[in-house]
Write a structure and sequence with these properties.
six-stranded mixed beta sheet, homodimer, alpha/beta, Peroxisomal Thiolase, Chain A, domain 1, 338 residues
């Protein structure tokens, strides 16, 4: 298909702001590069529950409750909860939503979910339909591994292109009132599929979607890569990031040192994560720790946050399908810019 | 939890309109009560594909293409595709989205997805973020049965409270331009769980969520059941509808003859569907056949369309969880009302 890029970006006039945020991670992530920045590190990766899946739900609950508290709000102030996750029928999000007396709309963009929920949430706040919404997502190494790959007990060897699903959840409160970094625009991505069929090479599968979204974004906003203090992709990992840099160079865009990938920065090199971190929680916890903190202090003025998702299921892989990707992006600017 | 209902309804000022719609169903649905109203009846429930799952994807593609054509538009005019379905990681929607050169945002509300996507789509059009969006969903008896219940080859006996997943897909084009029924408001539902653990009794699991959404809607809009020509629930089925009528009566609202359930009207009594139809495609194809046609001709002036979803997965059931439900609603009014 000949792809026309552009006209994918929505500009916000009414300054939807991130007035509260929270990140919670598991023990392995808590030993990684960003350990000083997370809101909470839990040492029990069951999160006090009997199963990992119930634990993942508790992560979302704690992230949401932490973000509401960070915004100095009560749950009565939250008018809509937008959330999704990797588990079948997004049960982590839906069962978390059951706990609260707020309307809930489930979303799904695989590991692009943090950006998707922020983009939709910003639209709803900007359009005046909701004063305040909450956006969240999560992933858990053990729930993802046993749902998508192999039983944990097998201890399967991991292929060299594989990534490590982050155990973590991030949540944001977006509001037209209050104070915080501003979401100034959102670029909604198209689904891209370059025919990758290796389900252990998600970075390669998602890189084309990331390229399309970045190019559409730069065209729509008439910006260049160097106009951002940070361009952050979600979980392309080491290989996927390199592919993205190459693909962008082919199209005439040079991604410089301001380009980083959450999957590459969350873990340390000696943590045996091969190509890096992945999962909805990867970009969600990086955004909701170091990135938002630096936007708030003014160290970053303008960040392009683009989360990337691989839209497969075990069944689509079993039926011989390749892996389509999607990437959504939001621009977040420090309030001090003004 | 004490539940506060109300402040869940968003009112649209800029008249987002349904300017195109389409419904496609399988052979069994094509022998049901609404056979004259569907846009397309396909006799091959593989939809020309090798697997039912690939077939379900083709259904969404045909529904989307049909709706775009019905709106007299080309795909260039569609700025965002909002879709979700019952399959793990909503692969029917995501793989369908791969075929088109338009941005895609996945949504998930189980069988409430048609209403959720219409509600979000109407917000995005009303807020001026997108001129025209497409909303769709699907379900397929054979893909749902083998994913959620038992292999088709087993021919398991069905419990008396069970429902029959509709093979069908519906799509709508919402736009600020053009002509068609107007979405005047949307009520976003809260998750409700009354402790039903029988996964063969979805109607009972979803009825409480439907009650909460209806009451919130009536409060927010200051309307009564008799103010609508039709109040349509998604797929509560015979038992779930009766529970809803009882629950509403307890709360002081009398649902009269203008209340109907898509699951109860789509099939004929002699089609051996027990409590009736279910699945995302149930409400989607009923809305996008008889209901929109009657709104267009003026036979209906004001319809309250509320789709209901059960937010479980096979794993949540295996881990002993009860089944939470959610219901979202939109009011659709004929253009001739004005």
């Amino acid at each position: 298909m000949k792809r026309e890029l552009g006209q994918q970006t929505v500009f916000f006039k009414n300054k939807p702001k991130i007035i509260g945020h929270y990140s919670i991670v598991g023990p392995k992530e808590g030993k990684g590069n960003l350990r000083e920045y997370f809101s909470e590190i839990e040492q029990d990766d069951f999160f006090g529950q009997k199963t990992y899946e119930k634990g993942e739900r508790v992560m979302i609950e704690r992230a949401l409750e932490g973000a509401v508290k960070d915004a100095n709000l009560s749950f009565d102030d939250i008018k809509l909860f937008l959330s999704g996750d990797l588990l079948n029928q997004i049960i982590s999000s839906s069962y978390a939503a059951r706990k609260y007396d707020i309307p809930y709309a489930g979303v799904f963009g695989a590991c692009s979910t943090m950006a998707e929920s922020l983009a939709l949430g910003a639209c709803l706040v900007d359009g005046g339909h909701f004063e305040t919404v909450a956006c969240a997502t999560s992933s858990h190494f053990s729930t993802a591994e046993r749902q998508f790959r192999t039983p944990l007990e097998l201890g399967s060897q991991r292929p060299p292109t594989s990534q490590w699903t982050v155990t973590g959840s991030g949540a944001d409160i977006i509001s037209s009132k209050g104070s915080g970094p501003i979401i100034t625009c959102a670029t909604f991505g198209k689904v891209a599929d370059f025919g990758i069929t290796d389900v252990n090479n998600m970075g390669a599968a998602m890189a084309p979607a990331a390229m399309y979204t970045l190019i559409a974004h730069f065209k729509d906003t008439k910006t260049k890569p160097e106009d951002y203090d940070l361009i952050l992709s979600g979980d392309l990992g080491k290989l996927g990031s390199e592919i993205l840099i190459d693909l962008m160079e082919d199209k005439g865009y040079k991604l410089g040192l301001n380009y980083k990938d959450c999957g590459q920065i969350i873990f340390k090199r000696n943590q045996n994560v091969l190509m890096g971190g992945s999962g909805c929680g990867c970009s969600a916890t990086v955004l909701n720790s170091i990135v938002l903190k630096k936007l708030i202090t003014g160290e970053y003025k303008r960040v392009l946050f683009m989360a990337t998702g691989a839209l497969l299921s075990t069944l689509s892989a079993q039926q011989g399908e390749s892996v389509p990707g999607v990437a959504h992006a939001v621009v977040i600017e420090g309030e001090k810019n003004e």
